[in-house]
Amino acid sequence: MSKEINRRDFIGYSFAAVAAVGGAASLVGMKQAWDPLPSVLAGGFTEIDLSAVKAGEPETFTWRGKPIFILKKTAEMESSTRDLVIGADRFTVAIGLCTHLGCIPAWKKDKWKCACHGGEFNPSAKQVFGPPPRPLDLPPFSVKGTSITLGEEGPEYKAIADAMKA
Predict the structure, then answer these.
(1) Which helix (H) or strand (E) holds 108?
(2) Is 151 helix (H, G, I), strand (E, B) or coil?
(3) pLDDT grade, residue 1 (50/70/90)?
(4) Phi, psi of 129 (to 5 degrees)
(5) C-alpha to C-alpha distance for 140 and 138, rounded to whole angstroms
(6) Does the record carry Metal-binding as a key word (predicted)?
(7) Which residues have CB under 8 Å from 113's CB, separation 6+?
(8) Would you give the distance in Å from CA 4 to the centre of its chain?
(9) Which spans in the chain are helix H?
């Protein structure tokens, strides 16, 4: 048995090596194509400072292309299991899309009103009139001091979500 490599074996080994390197490079390229872009990952989390929100005046923020309603409740507004309590302040946090057909309700005096079908939501984001089948949805959030980070599920979010199911 000869220990010399003939020409045919050399070409076979060379082809296998080139195929292995090409396959590995293809896998790396496919993984990079499947990973989300850094801009998409950064858009997944939005931090909002709640200390700047004025009582009785809802503010609208954008998270993942959706409007997020945040209302600091006044003393006259009813308490709810949906309330996010930070210190002595109570907040309503909701995705600002009507649960009927996805319209964006507008704040009118003391409630959110959906113009297209007349749906109404109270300051706690619960439906009170019209065709919406359920309250405004709750975005996932976590609380850090007086700010919230949308996109993270913290214990406060889980407590409110569990209270809404009950």
Answers:
(1) strand 106-108
(2) coil
(3) very low
(4) -160, 150
(5) 7
(6) yes
(7) 105, 106, 107, 119, 120, 121
(8) 64
(9) 7-34, 38-43, 155-165
